[in-house]
Amino acid sequence: MTDATAPTPRTAAPAVAPRVKVAMILFAAFALFPLLAFALDDPFLIVIGTRILAYAIAAMALDLILGYGAMVSFGHAAYLGFGTYAVAILSSYGVTDIFAQTLFAVAISAVFAFVTGAISLRTKGVYFIMITLAFGQMAFFFFISLSAYGGDDGYGLSGRSTVLGSNMLENDTTLYYATLVALIALFVLCHRIVASRFGRVLTGIRENPTRMESIGFPPFRYQLTAFVISGCITAVAGVLLANQAQFVSPAFMSWHRSGELIVMVVLGGIGTLSGAIGGAVAALLLEEVLGMMTEHWRLWFGIFLVLMVLFSPRGLTGLFEQIRGRRE
């Protein structure tokens, strides 16, 4: 089949540029955030900011398959765990370079995503959700069984990863900006994937897999590739989270964490990479603010999420576009 048979998202083109602009605004705000922390004389804000950026990477990776491939993975936090434990395991053997740790995490995630994705994609709908949950829980309990790395109690890291022999990441601000650079680079990668022929095919499969298969695009192959890419990107977020917390635990890969990632994507707007980043920011800031106000913050967070889904089904992105449309 020629490229002429592939669905071309001409109608979606006008919406792409504003969303990229939103991402650029978010990145600019992230770049200036440490200045706010210094102005308030509260260095802990930088630690919180690094955590937000790392989860933004994970949410964006999940949105790549959830929003563009209609694959609702309820075990995606497993790849966060692979990233965190890659740091812990290699560090225990004296390998502290972050590039080596990231490469190891990505390799393990790619293998796990390929095997589990190949099985999971044989199913559809709720069965896909449940089988990804099952695989995620298998990984969760596997790391609980690793008594050498703390089991259920977790494992404390002696220090952060090195960069070509340098300990520059020991500085919180440097780690923050390193995480921001990773987020920007991975956003560019994901945006190029979505805008490419591969991304258009993936979107077409989301809309009508039968038709896409009939014109020569096998859904399984494209969905599995996207599934593996998403898992690898999430593993990078895990490496950064391990360095931020200097602690690893199976809790990073529990099904609750997978649910939180889905909430971030839904809150920001499914099928919008910038929305996933904004959803991660909104969810984690709400968690921090409501947590300071009441121990029952999950109740209020749930109410906020229900109201958002009812009045803005497309999340914060839809709300932003409504406001922008009214002004125009």
Automatic annotation (TrEMBL):
Q: Which residues cross the membrane?
A: 20-40, 52-78, 98-119, 126-149, 175-199, 220-241, 261-285, 297-316
What GO cellular component is one of the record's annotations? plasma membrane
Signal sequence, renumbered to the chain: none
Matches recorded under CDD domains: TM_PBP1_LivM_like (cd06581)
Q: Which InterPro entries match?
A: ABC_transp_permease (IPR001851), LivM-like (IPR043428)
Top-level taxon of origin: Bacteria
Instruction: Report membrane topology.
Output: Multi-pass membrane protein
Key word Transmembrane present in the record? yes
Where is this protein chiefly located? membrane
* Localization (cell): Cell membrane
Which key words are in the record? Cell membrane, Membrane, Transmembrane, Transmembrane helix
Identification of the protein by name: High-affinity branched-chain amino acid transport system permease protein LivH
GO terms for MF: branched-chain amino acid transmembrane transporter activity
